[in-house]
From TrEMBL, chain A:
The keyword ATP-binding applies. GO terms for molecular function: ATP binding; ATP hydrolysis activity. InterPro entries: AAA+_ATPase, ABC_AA/LPS_Transport, ABC_transporter-like_ATP-bd, ABC_transptr_urea_ATP-bd_UrtD, BCA_ABC_TP_C, P-loop_NTPase. It comes from the Bacteria. Keywords: ATP-binding, Nucleotide-binding, Transport. Residues 13-253 form the ABC transporter domain. Involved in beta-(1-->2)glucan export. Transmembrane domains (TMD) form a pore in the inner membrane and the ATP-binding domain (NBD) is responsible for energy generation. This is Urea ABC transporter ATP-binding protein UrtD. SUPFAM superfamilies: P-loop containing nucleoside triphosphate hydrolases (SSF52540). NCBIfam families: urea_trans_UrtD (TIGR03411).
UniProtKB/TrEMBL annotation, chain B:
It is found in: Cell membrane. Its main location: membrane. The chain crosses the membrane at residues 14-35, 47-70, 76-94, 129-153, 160-178, 208-229, 256-277, 297-321, 333-354. This is Urea ABC transporter permease subunit UrtC. It comes from Bradyrhizobium forestalis. The keyword Signal does not apply. Keywords: Cell membrane, Membrane, Transmembrane, Transmembrane helix. GO terms for molecular function: branched-chain amino acid transmembrane transporter activity. GO terms for cellular component: plasma membrane. The lineage of its organism: Bacteria, Pseudomonadati, Pseudomonadota, Alphaproteobacteria, Hyphomicrobiales. The keyword Transport does not apply.
Length: 253, 392
């Protein structure tokens, strides 16, 4: 089968007419969105706009009632489970930092590396030089080299957020979904995180959900505003933030 | 198991543990057999059998710690795998009785003659051969765990729901094995064993050998568990325990990992049961009682979950206490004491005996290191102000 012929779209991620309801509540309502390869997209929107539900759909945690979700133009994500989707190359950072607290920073990254994830592979695993070099590189990128042997649970909130981004880097997915990366960070940390994401975007496609408008502005990328499970506005930060409806439902007058 | 997995897995507490078990496994049988009966150092036969029982319990505790302590699977039905291993061994021992039974039937065990059965049921075939019985000791619990786990883990049954269905599983087996027409001796179970591999099960030499074998099984089981938990797979298990869905999003097939340890653990529990039966001389359906499985979980909690050494220690300590208290005036209150023990451990020693000791040891080591750095700095006048600066 020739992959090029069967591609329905050139987009890295393609959502069309997606609906999800929970007990009659329409969390996602006719949502359509495309993300081109190499793009970074910021998603904003009020609480309950469906931002996290959208990520749940993309990563296989929630199954949509109807609609199309295509990854890389060929793969229908609605048919796959979380593990399979992660193996395909979609990584996710959660809203609340979820690192493996009782393991060291280094081991967290080791677990995230996109190497053999089978039971047999991990049982007979022996570390390789290439693996430890990759871990070293990620540690440097997320500025946690000195903390490599500390338990992840003992890190500060901001450091945990970075460790989780580092885990995404180790996973080396084609598409990164980053949910509220700067929540609870200081201004300096927020700035560094924006730099980090821009650096990551050079080699990866990224989708960032964030409330912090200063941070979104600093990213300087195309912005999509969600409201009640559907796209309200899309464009540059200036276009979106001057949109009447966006001001009304989200930014406030 | 490759050599690098063994060397990597041995830290200090593991080495001490193995040395103690090996010493017991060699010295206790030797003292029992070689020293004169009136000697102070002679271990009487009844104690050899009793401690042999504890060692089997320790293997069971180890198997529970592997899944509960490292993977967060709280099985409240592990006694079922222990009992199934025990029944497999019991069936072999029954077939060895031959014409020495009350009814003298060379093929059928006494209870079948009593029930007027004419021929051996198909599932008793092969149990006259030791190798087959030994294989079944692993296969039967392993297969049940695999099927049960495959259904439960694939449907993502976790936490308290999984615990409840494991209880239901062992209770269902209890009821089934109570039935006479099930073909395993009904509520009397299997007993009146005569010999194992040609040796009299009652003989001192056989008991001593069984004790030594139990210690060997504990050592091998411990090494397997250590190899598993100190491999990268062990890190994945802990990840599943602490944040299951996060592990899925990293691309690990969580259900396969759970199924793997659950099955390994059930096989270990089966071996423990198989060694237990010839030493206590009986296996009956009460071994499937849900209470037994819960008690085994308490041993692990007392010793310290997620430490392996603690699980084995907890099994021995709690069972020693049980023997001690149930043989005196306090006997009627043992279950209350066990309950109180569980509550006290949960409240005061949530990490268990070994877990608490390890935490204390690490802390005092840190203090010693800090003190050593400070005194080294004090000797070297130049570095002291610099260090103080760094600290401020």
């Amino acid at each position: 089968m020739n992959v090029m012929d069967t591609r329905a779209t050139s987009a890295m991620l393609y959502l069309d007419g997606v609906h999800v309801s929970f007990d009659g509540f329409h969390a996602i309502n006719n949502l359509s969105l495309t993300l081109e390869p190499g793009e970074m997209r910021a998603i904003i929107g009020p609480n309950g706009a469906g931002k996290t539900t959208m990520m749940d759909i993309i990563t296989g945690k929630t199954k949509p009632d109807e609609g199309t979700v295509l990854f890389d133009g060929v793969t229908d994500l609605t048919r796959l489970d979380e593990t399979r989707i992660a193996e395909l190359g979609i990584g996710r950072k959660f809203q609340k930092p979820t690192v493996f607290e009782s393991q060291t920073v280094q081991d967290n990254l080791l677990l995230a590396l996109n190497v053999d994830h089978s039971v047999r592979g991990t049982l007979f695993w022996r570390g390789s030089k290439a693996e430890s070099e990759r871990i070293d590189k990620v540690l440097e990128t997320i500025r946690l080299t000195d903390a490599r042997n500390r338990l992840a649970g003992s890190l500060s909130h901001g450091q945990k957020q970075w460790l989780e981004i580092g885990m995404l880097l180790a996973q080396d997915p084609k598409l990164l979904l980053v949910d509220e990366p700067v929540a609870g960070m200081t201004d300096v940390e927020t700035h560094l995180t924006a730099e980090l994401l821009k650096e990551i975007n050079k080699t990866h496609t990224v989708m960032v959900v964030e409330h912090d408008m200063t941070f979104v502005r600093e990213l300087g990328v195309k912005v999509t505003c969600l409201h009640e499970g559907t796209v309200l506005a899309e464009g540059t930060i200036d276009q979106v933030s001057s949109n009447e409806r966006v001001i009304e439902v989200y930014l406030g007058r | 198991m490759t050599p690098h997995m063994l060397t990597r897995s041995l830290d200090r507490s593991a080495t001490i543990f193995l040395a103690i078990v090996a010493a017991c496994g060699i010295l206790i049988p030797l003292s029992n057999l070689l020293l004169p009966a009136n000697s102070f150092l002679q271990v009487p036969t009844y104690l050899v059998a009793l401690w042999g029982k504890y060692v089997c319990y320790a293997i069971l505790a180890l198997s529970i710690d592997l899944i509960w302590g490292y993977c967060g699977i709280l099985s409240l039905g592990h006694g079922a795998f222990f009992a199934l291993g025990g029944y497999a061994m019991g069936m072999y021992l029954m077939r060895q009785i031959g014409t020495r039974g009350v009814y003298g039937n060379p093929i059928l065990p006494d209870f079948m003659v009593f029930l007027n059965w004419q021929k051996l049921p198909w599932y008793w075939y092969g149990f006259d051969m030791f190798w087959f019985a030994a294989l079944m000791v692993l296969v039967v619990p392993g297969l049940l765990a695999f099927c049960f786990g495959w259904l439960a883990f694939r449907s993502r049954v976790t936490g308290v729901y999984l615990s409840i269905i494991t209880q239901a599983m062992t209770y269902a087996l209890l009821l089934a094995f109570f039935r006479n027409d099930f073909g395993f001796g009904g509520n009397n179970g299997l007993t009146d064993f005569k010999d194992i591999l040609g040796f009299n099960v009652q003989a001192e030499g056989t008991r001593a050998a069984l004790f030594a074998l139990s210690c060997l099984a504990l050592i091998v089981g411990f090494l397997i568990c250590r190899a598993i938990v100190s491999s990268k797979l062990g890190k994945v298990l802990i990840a599943v325990r602490d944040a299951e869905s996060r592990t899925r999003f990293l691309g690990y097939r969580v259900e396969s990992y759970k199924l793997f340890v659950f099955t390994v653990s059930a096989c270990m529990a089966g071996v423990a049961g198989a060694l237990y039966v010839p030493q206590v001389g009986i296996i009956n359906p009460s071994e499937f009682a849900p209470g037994n499985s819960i008690e085994a979980v308490i041993w692990v909690a007392v010793g310290g979950r997620g430490t392996l050494v603690g699980a084995a220690l907890g099994a021995v300590v709690v069972n020693y206490a049980k023997t001690f208290f149930t043989s005196g005036v306090l006997a009627p209150y043992w279950l209350f004491m066990l309950g109180a023990l569980f509550i006290l451990v949960t409240l005061l020693l949530p990490k268990g005996i070994v877990g608490t000791f390890n935490a204390w040891w690490d802390q005092s080591k840190e203090k010693r290191t800090a003190a050593a750095i400070a005194s080294a700095a004090a000797e070297d006048g130049v570095t002291e102000p610099k260090m103080a600066e760094e600290r401020s």
